[in-house]
Amino acid sequence: RGVELREGDTVVAQGFIADIEWETVPTAPTLAEAEAAQTHYTGFHTHVFPRCFVCGPEREEGDGLRLFAGPLHREGLDLAACIWKPGPGFALADGTVDPVFQWAALDCPSFFGMHVPYDKTFLLAEMTAQLAAPVAADATLIVYGWGRRIDGRKHFAGSAIATTEGTVLAHAQHLWIEARPG
After folding, report:
1. In this predicted structure, what is the pLDDT of residue 14?
2. How far is Cα 66 from Cα 51, in angstroms, rounded to an integer?
């Protein structure tokens, strides 16, 4: 039915085909909006995981995705958005981005799209993604995230990868859990 990632006998992560009801993906920000938003990325000033493969500012070009999703407020919806130029290091032989890196790109922008207090710890508990179309590794892309709803310590978010014309190529729904203090 799926796969498991284990450390010894401990299951660390599971993956399987999910049958869910997808929520509507917000319209992609424009290239100009995403460029402006990423200049205000919180992680430039303080970062819990500065070497994060996806959003760590201490990663070098090609050694991480370097997705710096900054706040974007529009039409009653708070987003976080940035530009992504994957490059050949993240491509398969056909020139498309390896799905592993698409999944990674859909991760952290959802957290920053929730606009939660950065002094609290949140853990990604669940992520369901739909890779709808090939993502060209030589393209300029817009990656964005948003909060969906909150239920106690459960924070529901979403993220997407889109072309600069606004075509959504991949999107995900996430469940983040706010860790208890201490």
Report:
1. 75
2. 10
**Residue 178: exposure state from Cβ atoms within 10 A (0-12, 13-18, ≥19):** middle
pLDDT class for 1, splitting at 50, 70, 90? low
Q: Is 62 helix (H, G, I), strand (E, B) or coil?
A: coil
* CA–CA dist 32, 135 (Å, integer): 20
| 60 or 171: which leads in pLDDT | 171
* Residue 93's pLDDT band (cuts 50, 70, 90): very high
- pTM, two decimals, is 0.91
Beta strand extents in the chain (DSSP E only): 2-7, 10-16, 70-74, 77-84, 122-131, 141-151, 154-163, 168-178
Facing residues of 144 across strands?
A: 81, 160
Give Rg (Cα) of the chain. 16
Q: What is the number of residues in the chain?
A: 182
Q: Which residues, including other chains, have CB under 8 Å from residue 26's CB and lie 6 or more apart? A: 77, 79, 144, 146, 158, 160
Q: Strands, E, within 116-167: which ranges?
A: 122-131, 141-151, 154-163
Locate 174 and state its tokens: 């996430």
